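Dear colleagues,

I hope this message finds you well. In preparation for our joint manuscript, I am sending the STEAP family member 3, metalloreductase (Nothobranchius furzeri) sequence together with its predicted structure, so that both groups work from identical material. I would be grateful if you could confirm receipt.
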Amino acid sequence: MPDLMARPLIPGGSEGRGSCLEASMSDPRNPVIGILGTGDFSRSLAKRLMAAGYQVVVGSRTPKRFVALFPEEAEVTTQMEAASQADLVFVAVYPEHHSTLVSLKATLAGKTLVDVSNGLRLNRDGPSNAELLADYFPESVVVKGFNTISAWTLQMGPRDGNRQVFLCGNSQKAKDSVKQVCCRMGFIPVDMGLLSSSLEIENLPLYLFPSWRIPILCTLSLFAFFYIYNFTQDVLHPYITSRKNAFYKMPIDTVNLTLPSVALVMLSLVYLPGLCAAFRQLCSGTKYKRFPNWLDCWLTTRKQFGLCSFLCAVLHAIYSLCLPLRKSARFKLINMAYKQVKMGVEDSWVDEEVWRMELYLSVGIMALGLLSLLAVTSLPSVANSINWREFSFIQSSLGYCALSMATAHTLIYGWNRAFDASQYHFYMPPNFILVLVLPIVVLLGRLALFLPCVAGRLRRIRRGWESCRQIRFMLPGEEYRNGMEDISNV
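The corresponding C-alpha cells are as follows:
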C-alpha cells in the first residue's frame, strides 16, 4: 500500500513534468524582484510575487523598522542592497520622492524599473510620472504598469478584482519580462505601446464615471423638472385654489409620479440616437460619413441611459408597493367607506376602473420584466456568453417591446383623463401627456424604418452601398470590338 501511494499519478511526472510553481521556484533563471518602498502597495505586491514563486527583496531607508510588516520569506534590506540584488525593480514610492533615489542611478543602470505611481489629479498636459522617472534614470529602462491595480486586488488575488494590467514602455524586451511576471501573478497584461502612453495610463484610475456624467445629469434634470411639475399640479394648485393642504404627498406620491416619467423618457433616449443615426445614413446615402460628436457620444452612452431608466422603474415599483402602507392611504380608505355607508351605497364596483387598473398593473409588470432582462444582458459577464445576434435581438427587439409596454402602461394610466378639463391645473396638461411625446415619436420612427422601401435602402447602405458611387451601366453605342461591346463607358 505505501508503494502504491508513493507511485506518481502521471508516469514520469515526478521527474520531468512537476508542477509549474515548483519548476518556477527551482528555476535559477527566475529574476530576483526588487521593491523600493514599504507602503501598503509594496506589502501586497510582495505577497503576490512570492505566491507566484519569485524571490523578493524589499529596499527601505529604515529596514529594521518595517521588517516585521513583510512576510518572513521576503528580504527587507537597504535600498542600495535591494537595487544591487534585483534584476527587475518595482518603484513603489510617491512620485515626488523619485528624486531621492538618484543615488541609486549607477546601481540601477541597465535594469528594468516598473513605475506603479499615480498622480493626485488628472494630468492632461504631461509629462507623466514614468517619463520623469526615465529622466532621472536615463541608463535604466522604465516600464509603466500596475498603477490601475489596488493593494486590495493584489492581496486578494485577481479573481476578486480587475484582471487587466496596462503596460507601456520603449523597450519590448523589458515589457516582455514584466508581462511574464504579470501572467505568473494571475493578471492579464495589456500592451499600450510606448512610454508616451503612460500619461493616459496614469489618468485611468483618476476618472470618476466619465461615461455616466451625461446620463446621470440628464436623469437628475428630468427628475427635478417632473417633480416640480407634479408638485405644482397636485400640491400647490389645491392649496392656492381651495386652501387644501396636500403637502404630505411630497415624499411618496409626488416622487412616485415622477419616477415613471423619468424612466420612460430615459428609455426613449436609449433608442432615439439609433433612429437619428439611421435617418442620417439614409439622407447621406452612405455609412462612411462620420456622425457628429454629440451623436457619437450619445450612441456610446446608451447603456448608461438604459440602466438609469431601469433604476427609476425599480424605484417606482418599490414606491408603488409601499403606497398601501401609509397612514394617509388608510385614512382615505376609512373615510371612503364611511361616506358609502352614510350615503347608503351598497355596491361601489365600477367595471371601467377595474379593467383599467388590471390592465395598468399587468402591462407595467411586463415592462419591468423586459427592462430587467435588458439590464441583466448588459452585464459584461452575460454579454460575453451570447453571440452578437442574440445580444442584438435582446437589446433591440425586446428593448422596443419594453418601450412599447411602458408606453402602453402610461396610456392606460392616463385613460380618458387627457380629455377632462379639470385635470388641466393652471392650464397645464397632465404630466403623462408630456411624458408620452418622446416615446411615441421613437416608436413612430421605428415603424417608419420597417417600411420595405426604407428598410431595403438602409440595409444596402449598411452593407457598403453608397448612393453617390453607384455603378451606372450605359447602353453601348456604335463602338464595338470584334462583336463585343465596349465597356469603357461603364
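For the figure legend, we might mention the following. The first helix runs from residue 2 to 6. The radius of gyration is 34 Å.

With kind regards,
E.M.
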